[in-house]
Each structure stands twice: as structure tokens, then as C-alpha cells.
Design a protein that fits this description.
This protein is mainly beta. Helices cover about 10% and strands about 40% of the residues.
Length: about 240
């Protein structure tokens, strides 16, 4: 037995090996919302405030269907997720997730904790106030203490998302935060294809640590938090 294994003890060894060999994979994402008073997001996917999502699978890629997922924190109490199919779960539409930086957010599966993370602070992002139609925006959070970045663009006239890199399926959260961390994003010009008013939201994401992962695979499971900070961008025809 190596010196490392002798030092950490039998109970710790069992926990370590159990976490590595556990076939269940869980990913959690909790995003708060920051919106200036003069920016109206009614009618959009963000009209009700912050949202949370979870993605469940196993190492073979299979996704469960008969799982109860909840988000627990002091400011939210307990919120039950709704299944979106294919391993994706979200907090219900119309129910905002309260987000307090530094507050601990816990993801439970069938009443038992599997992931926890503290709420990350908002990133410091400078966005242009105006653009020409078809012009893109460069986003970079690599100079701050973040593990990744999520960006969403809304057309305020149509209420539609014109571009986002937000994860929509199992495996994507881990990929963008660990496998190939996304700290720099170039919003394509197609996101601002027409003149008008847009809202651009940017969230710097921070991930939890291995000791905040319970009863799922510790190598592949992760939870991330951040504040989606929206700003108005006016796009002109020229």
C-alpha cells in the first residue's frame, strides 16, 4: 500500500474509490439574474428571474426518467425541478430562483444531496451600448476568477433568444467548464441581424469542489453558479 493510501485511511479510501467508480453523473447549473430598471424582459424566458437546470446521466450515456430533483437553499426553501426529457431538468417556468452570492445551493436527488455549491458573484463585463446590424461582440472573463462563461442574447421586440451558449443537454456543463473551459466567447453577428433593441446577458461561472459531490461520480459530476447580468444594446441598420 502506498504512503498516500496509508495516510488518508480506510474510510477515506472507500469514499474516494466509491466516488470514482460510481456510474451516476450529475451536473447542476444555478444562474441568478441582474437586470437594470430600464430593461424590460417581460415575455422572454427570463421574465420571472433566475433559473436552475440539472442534467443526469450515467457513464454509459443513459438518462434516468424516474428521479425527483430539488434545489434547496435558505432563500429558496425547496424548489422541485421539472423534467425536460433526455436527462435535462429545469426549475418550473414562472418560478424564480432567488440568488444570493455566497449562499450555499444544494441539489438533491430523491431527497438526498448529490451536489452543492456557493453562489458566485457577478462578473465585471463591459459591453458596447450600440452596434451595427451584423456586428458581433467579444466576451472575455479569463482575467477574473471564473471557470467558464454563459452568454445569452435576446431580441426585445420579438422576445426571442437569438443566440446562446447555455448548455441544453447532459455532458455539456462538464465539457465547457472542465474538459475545454469556455472563458472567451465571440457572439456572432447573426445574433444582431436586425436593427432594434437587444438584451445581452453574461454570467461568469464558478464550479464546486470534489468534496461537494456526493453519491455520484466525483470525476464527471459538477455544479456551477453565476449571475446572468443583462445589459441593453441598441443595434442600428448602418
Amino acid at each position: 500500500m502506498t504512503l498516500f493510501l496509508l495516510l488518508i485511511g480506510c474510510d477515506e479510501i472507500d469514499a474516494l474509490l466509491g466516488g470514482v467508480t460510481n456510474p451516476d453523473v450529475a451536473e447542476g447549473l444555478v444562474v441568478g439574474l441582474s437586470v437594470p430598471a430600464d430593461l424590460d424582459l417581460s415575455g422572454t424566458d427570463f421574465a420571472d428571474g433566475g433559473r436552475a437546470a440539472a442534467y443526469l446521466s450515467n457513464v454509459g450515456g443513459e438518462t434516468p426518467t424516474d428521479v425527483a430533483l430539488t434545489l434547496v437553499s435558505p432563500s429558496n426553501g425547496e424548489i422541485t425541478f421539472a423534467s425536460e426529457g433526455e436527462g435535462a431538468w429545469t426549475t418550473p417556468e414562472g418560478q424564480a430562483v432567488s440568488y444570493v452570492p455566497g449562499e450555499t445551493l444544494i441539489l438533491k436527488r430523491d431527497g438526498a444531496e448529490i451536489l452543492r455549491a456557493d453562489g458566485a458573484p457577478a462578473a465585471s463585463i463591459n459591453l458596447p451600448l450600440t452596434l451595427s446590424a451584423g456586428e458581433g461582440i467579444h466576451i472575455d472573463v479569463s482575467y477574473e476568477d471564473y471557470d467558464g462563461v454563459v452568454v445569452t442574447v435576446l431580441n426585445l421586440a420579438t422576445k426571442e433568444v437569438t443566440w446562446t451558449n447555455a448548455p441544453e443537454e447532459a455532458g455539456v456543463v462538464y465539457d465547457m467548464l472542465v474538459e475545454e473551459p469556455v472563458l472567451v466567447v465571440d457572439i456572432p453577428g447573426e445574433a444582431f441581424g436586425q436593427a432594434g433593441e437587444y438584451a445581452v446577458g453574461v454570467a461568469g461561472l464558478q464550479t464546486n469542489s470534489v468534496d461537494e459531490v456526493t453519491d455520484v461520480n466525483t470525476l464527471s459530476s459538477i455544479m456551477a453558479t453565476g449571475i446572468l447580468d443583462f445589459r441593453r444594446v441598441t443595434v442600428s441598420a448602418e
